[in-house]
Design brief:
globular, alpha/beta, 174 residues, two-stranded antiparallel ribbon, single chain, 21% strand
């Protein structure tokens, strides 16, 4: 079984969990002029290259559903939506079966969020730390790629892929 997990956005990552291995890479980015400013955006060519490497026959991709946050500004929301669209477009081009999951679902089922806590906006930093801790526990061979607080996108991508594996196994057992 080969499952890709994707935390979209410029601070996100792409992970592959296979039968005997796991890999994770940051979402590739580049600097691009947007209006009068230089902004970081997803490098769609490198993203396609990374996903092509992961696109083995029968691979399924689980992508965290994009949603704007009340704390995001208009340009940040647009950039996040643009990154999400690029991810979905590349997956479609590569004919990779794609399934979407909301952050609250996979995080709750992985034990990272207590029911109702997300809606109240509590402990987001602790949640990120918990995701890193859980990813290091599940994938100790990748602990060096999950060492910093800013590696939370990598942890999320790995945990989304792990959650996807659990969903596929549960469906096969039913």
């Amino acid at each position: 079984m080969n499952v890709i997990g994707i935390d979209p956005g410029i601070h996100g990552a792409v992970a592959l969990v296979a039968d005997d291995a796991a890999y994770v890479v940051d979402t590739p980015t580049l600097e691009r002029k947007v209006g009068r400013k230089i902004r970081r955006r997803v490098n769609v060519i490198e993203l396609a290259d990374a996903l092509t490497t992961f696109a083995l026959p029968g691979t399924v991709a689980y992508v965290e559903r994009a949603q704007a946050s009340p704390r995001m500004g208009v340009s940040s929301s647009f950039a996040y939506g643009e990154a999400f669209g690029m991810v979905v477009g590349v997956l479609a081009h590569l004919h990779i079966e794609t399934r979407f999951v909301s952050p609250s679902v996979w995080k709750r089922e992985m034990g990272l969020v207590k029911p109702g806590a997300r809606e109240l906006g509590r402990d987001e930093e602790r949640e990120k730390g918990s995701a890193l801790e859980l990813a290091r526990k599940l994938y100790p061979q990748l602990a060096d790629k999950l060492a910093r607080a800013k590696d939370d996108g990598r942890a999320d991508a790995l945990l989304i892929a792990h959650w996807g594996c659990e969903q596929i196994e549960a469906a096969a057992a039913a």
